[in-house]
Design a protein that fits this description.
The protein is built from 16 helices and no strands. The protein is mainly α.
């Protein structure tokens, strides 16, 4: 049972680009300048409810601004309709990296589409009974009930994600990975699936795959500490302690601001980093970073 959502060609192109733009290196070329101008235009608009029409308007206003400021050579290069279309396509690819406000708006819209109960009442009943079994630590029973929910609605994100959680509770990380991957094939920005897929890969010592999950989590949700914590932990497990420092301290600050109980996890990870750097006579780097981030760890 598919979720329905309406998107113009422009905004649909951006949605597809969400996954493609992570970790790409970008030069300040003509399409990027257009993307920056589009973002400036969007920043002046308080309500992005009519995203399709607003994007179209901002896109061509931005193109005109950048084109007028360009050299004669650049103007000649992009003087045809085909060249303009190519610029706009490339600008849209870069837009989400240049415009966090737009990225956040699109992600919030998609979260409303996918993080919700099913349209199937039967699927919802099986899912809720599965949650009761999960709460009673009957994880195998929960998996069976989530499976029945998924037969009624194969794209029920809650049921897919909770099946992965139940398999993790049974220490069956391989099967957990299978369900998180199914979830992300439908909803690539799903925070719960990204975070727990990263955990499952970490448990399986597939650290590069775990890092990919945490990179995406930090990119899509920059105000969530989980992505940064995951990146820091993977660097620690990879014995790249100097690279880990920034991410662990960012996570620590975000946990601290939210009053999260998980702040003890970042403290423990920070202490591990400090002790390893101490063996290398590099504790001054740790102290400098702690000062930069305003972090005080009891060592």
């Amino acid at each position: 049972m598919r979720r329905s959502a309406k998107h113009s060609r422009v905004s649909w192109f951006i949605l597809i680009s969400l996954v493609l733009v992570v970790n790409k290196t970008r030069a300040q070329d003509f399409p990027q300048k257009v993307a920056v101008e589009i973002c400036h235009c969007l920043d002046t608009i308080s309500n992005l409810d009519s995203l399709d029409s607003i994007l179209d308007s901002c896109a061509y206003e931005a193109l005109e601004t950048v084109f007028d400021d360009a050299s004669d050579e650049i103007q000649e290069l992009y003087s045809t309709d085909e060249a303009v279309e190519e610029v706009m396509n490339k600008a849209m690819e870069k837009l989400l990296s240049e415009c966090p406000y737009l990225r956040k708006s699109i992600i919030e819209e998609r979260k409303r589409v996918y993080y919700r109960m099913s349209d199937s009442e039967d699927a919802n009943k099986f899912y809720e009974n599965g949650n009761k079994a999960y709460e009673n630590k009957d994880f195998r029973g929960a998996i069976k009930l989530y499976g029945k929910a998924l037969k009624k609605d194969p794209e029920f994100i809650y049921a897919l994600d909770n099946t992965g959680l139940a398999y993790r509770q049974l220490n069956d990380n391989r099967k957990a990975v299978k369900y998180y991957q199914r979830s992300l094939s439908i909803y690539p920005e799903g925070s719960l699936a990204l975070q727990n897929l990263g955990v499952a890969y970490t448990n399986m010592n597939q650290l590069s795959s775990a890092m990919d999950c945490y990179d995406k989590l930090a990119y899509f949700y920059p105000e969530d500490p989980e992505g940064y914590f995951g990146i820091g932990k993977v660097y620690v497990l990879s014995e790249q302690y100097e690279k880990a420092i920034d991410y662990v301290f960012i996570a620590h600050r975000l946990y601290s601001l939210s009053g999260s109980e998980y702040i003890s996890d970042t403290e423990n990870l920070a202490i591990t980093i400090y002790n390893k750097l101490k063996e290398q006579n590099k504790t001054e780097l740790f102290r400098q970073k702690a000062f930069e981030y305003g972090v005080n760890i009891n060592l």
